[in-house]
Design a protein that fits this description.
Two copies of one chain form a homodimer. Chain A has about 210 residues and is mainly α. The first copy, chain A, folds into two domains: about 1-50, Arc Repressor Mutant, subunit A, CATH 1.10.10.60; about 60-205, Tetracycline Repressor, domain 2. Chain A contains ten helices and no strands. In chain A, helix 1 crosses helix 4 (about 50-80) and helix 1 (about 5-25) packs across helix 6. The radius of gyration of chain A is 19 Å and the shape is globular. Chain A starts with 6 loop residues before the first helix and ends in a 5-residue tail after the last helix. Chains A and B meet through helix 6, helix 7, helix 8, helix 9 and helix 10 of A and helix 6, helix 7, helix 8, helix 9 and helix 10 of B. The structure holds a DNA duplex (18 and 18 nucleotides). Chains A, B: GO terms for molecular function: DNA-binding transcription factor activity; transcription cis-regulatory region binding. Chains A, B: Keywords: DNA-binding, Repressor, Transcription, Transcription regulation. Chains A, B: It comes from Craterilacuibacter sinensis. Chains A, B: This is TetR family transcriptional regulator.
Chain lengths: ~210, ~210
DNA sequence: GTCTATACGGAGATAGAC
DNA sequence: GTCTATCTCCGTATAGAC
């Protein structure tokens, strides 16, 4: 039965989630995982096929419900006829990300960083898995943006979505290209609430500026 | 003499730059590099200390002149008394990035991607090297932004710089979090000129919106 | 079906001869 | 400076025990 997975596979999943979040993908070895999970080295390849596929499983376990939550918020927004507010559309994405980042049982803020980094860094195996299953996400948000920003041409719309989601994913990833230069970072780039408070207006300013084409 | 480096070290540098750009850091092995450069495997560790340190050398060889070019443009801008235009300040950063991306002798667009990805992905050794040598870059641009956006408080200023540089570096890195979902990307996220044409207005909109604090 | 022990090839690093 | 030989650790594959 698919549901009653052996404890071995579950233990591997949970231990490796913690280790991937803490040390990153490359720096986490299968020997670290299997030792801490108290299972045999070969168990990972038996249950998941490869280290890459293990990461994909770890990733999908959190990503699927996150995407569903965003689309559910989008459904709710459109159901109550508020789908023409771009701010509210943006918040249907932001809010589930924030909720996930506050949930310690699901790894909290650290896991959101893993998610975002995996997207930004473009893991090989992840690409295929995502384009297979999550094209709906992009299509739904493209529709939603088009409806909330009807004065934009298709080119403008695509570019602005590109920048907006890039900015949001990177913000949640905790990437701070300036902090690596600075001795004492002024911006607490890892505090999700503070990020959102400044991020949303910035993104909205770019989205709502006059059309260029 | 520092200038007359042995041909061995130089060959390693040039071959590894090409391979890092083409295959990425992890996927490029020392054995690939040394074979193609026709030097012994141990030569890398003798001349550079480690694979990480080799990457740092490859990186710095291009990054240092890029940063200098930006600061030179900033100097020129302020010398002619145009330092209060935020658009022009932003362009002092964009223009050298574009120039580098057009220069095939220095790796062209692919190398700009490597640079940006290294920043975004936050290589361990890179962090230390950068914070040691390039704090001037951040300090100069912080001053320049403060002068061009005098109505902003320090908090607003830091956040907006954080978002603006994050957006610009990611754009040049060619990261496209949406494209991995899409079958056919509408946005040609890798074409530097097209990026800039849409990127600059988006960034400026966020930078110049009314202050929040 | 599950799990264990073990082996293999490739990686980065290094000691020591020349 | 250079090169050979060798070390440890990695992900992976498989044969065979339960």
């Amino acid at each position: 039965m698919e549901v009653n997975r052996s404890d071995t596979a579950t233990r591997i999943l949970e231990v490796s989630e913690l280790l991937f979040v803490e040390h990153g993908f490359e720096a986490t070895s299968l020997r670290m995982i299997t030792q801490q999970a108290e299972v045999n080295l070969a168990a990972v390849n038996y249950h998941f096929g490869s280290k890459d596929a293990l990461f994909e499983s770890v990733f999908m376990r959190r990503f699927t419900p996150l995407i569903s939550a965003c689309l559910a918020e989008l459904d709710a927004l459109e159901a109550k006829g508020a789908g023409d507010s771009i701010e509210r559309v943006v918040m249907t994405f932001i809010r589930p990300c924030l909720a996930l980042s506050r949930d310690p049982a699901r790894g909290g803020a650290l896991f959101v960083r893993l998610l975002s980094r995996a997207l930004v860094e473009n893991h090989r195996l992840l690409r295929e898995a995502l384009s297979r299953e999550y094209s709906e996400f992009v299509e739904r948000y493209t529709q939603a943006f088009r409806r909330a920003l009807p004065e934009l041409g298709e080119q403008d719309l695509s570019w602005r979505m590109h920048f907006a989601f890039g900015l949001m994913f990177n913000a949640f990833a905790g990437n701070d290209v300036l902090k690596i230069f600075r001795k004492s970072p002024v911006v607490t780039a890892r505090d999700p609430e503070a990020i959102v408070q400044h991020l949303v207006p910035f993104v909205l300013a770019g989205l709502t500026m006059p059309a260029s084409d």
